[in-house]
Amino acid sequence: MVIHFSIDDFIESFRDLTEKPYDTLFSHPVFSFLQEMHVAYGAVFSCYCFGRDARSGFRLEDVTQQYREEFSRNAHWLRFGFHGMDSNAVYGDNGGTRTINRDVQQAAADYAYVIKHLRRIVGEAAIDRIPRVHFFAGTNACCAAWKQAEYGILGLLTADDDRCSYYHDDVMRKRVIQDHMLYDADAGLWFFRTHIRLEREKDEKNLYESVIHFRGPCQIIFTHECHMGEAETRKKIELCAQTARITGKNMGFPCSCIEPMKA
Prior knowledge:
With 263 residues, this protein is of the alpha/beta class.
């Protein structure tokens, strides 16, 4: 069993690195905190990235590659993956709550764009191929396009609530909730349930017990980049990481669960 932390809607920290260069990557407040959690507790993190900021227009192609070697050296615990082109991009109906506005060709182009520039910014070793897509949305065709892409997805992280994620029907939804993960043999994709959205967790005792009592193959804990400057969010991340360390639970990426399941 592993515990994995992830951060959605990621792009602002890249802009900060570009516009206000730091002496080292880990002088930046967000990356400094992530490194602190890794050194202290062995925590591993994935940052799921937008291709552009919908408000400012800042794009991944604008990001400096000054820190590429540092990112690459730390890819064993810090990785980056696709989240969507921007905060307005919707790749599936998400159970009827969103209107699709990116077709399969656009989905393929968006993925190619994000991965191309992430490879330049952080290096190939730091690419996470089991990302969480914005709104947990993606038609069967979009997911197939992302799988077939260069550095294509091996799987996806599903919702932290009871909605149907991506192209899942009700049977698949129930299975991923019950078993915490699901392999779709037809699509050749692995799906991992997301368990904890930190900004919704108000009771530290409940959060502690959620980590203590988890018995699935991979516990997925996440937040959004806009919350990373909050002391409360950082405290929750540390509580989860510290609890995992004290109870002897491993830190890892969801991909580390795939090989044992194949065997």
